[in-house]
């Protein structure tokens, strides 16, 4: 038996496609798997997962015939890949198809926070323009020195866009990359933060980057800096960043990701110097369709005994 189980909040298009092709009507949460009968769990060889709740060995062990976890998303930090590998389970993700949207959003967040676009729009909607006059001056974004933390596929798309905004590009990653002339490599995140005006975070999530943007990195960026994060909330020492934003030791933040999503720390809601978005980096009709398609291509390849399209392990 080669049954497919789908777990997560899928779009109508994805629900239709998963049901039609794999007879897999999605269940909302991982915790529902435990409610299935032993007979229903037997023979499930592929799990199409869309979510950010931890998927570890304990969940995998509920599905004794599991051979594939196909993740909807490029970041697979919710999946314990070591647990999967130890059980002979392959993991796939959905890289590349979301690079443009996520990079667009990173640049948008930097511009939104620098130019105070949310606040100045509110000024207009609240009727303050004719009464109180022009909105106070914001700050320029083009031409700043920007540090990109993590020069993977998404980091590169962000840096290319920022270069078009005449920004001086600095980056940090595990190794020096083939990059255009004039881009500066730094091996250490504190050194990167010290060299730049603003910092954009594009590293993978998970234990290896937990708290990577530490209080020391935030201090090194300094009080004129803006931090943009489109990666994972876990990458930043969030309490240290909140302290710095509240105390004016950091000018601003543009954030699409947080610790403990969707129940984000209430301190963010009161900050006038943070542009906050509810994890919408890849949330366009076009990109989510492409992500769903790539997830199903991996399930299809697995069922046909063919090489997986975008394997992780
Ligand atoms: C999510 C993301 O996958 O791709 C990623 O790593 O963070 C997002 O695109 C999205 O929220 C769907 O769960």
TrEMBL record:
GO cellular component: cytosol
InterPro entries: D-isomer_2-hydroxyacid_DH, D-isomer_2_OHA_DH_cat_dom, D-isomer_DH_NAD-bd, NAD(P)-bd_dom_sf
Family annotation (CDD domains): HPPR
Record domain D-isomer specific 2-hydroxyacid dehydrogenase NAD-binding: where: 107-281
Chain ranges of the D-isomer specific 2-hydroxyacid dehydrogenase catalytic domain: 12-313
Gene3D superfamilies for the chain: NAD(P)-binding Rossmann-like Domain (3.40.50.720)
Keyword field contains Aminoacyl-tRNA synthetase: no
A Pfam family: 2-Hacid_dh
Keyword terms: NAD, NADP, Oxidoreductase
GO molecular function, one term: NAD binding
Family: Belongs to the D-isomer specific 2-hydroxyacid dehydrogenase family.
Protein's UniProt name: 2-hydroxyacid dehydrogenase
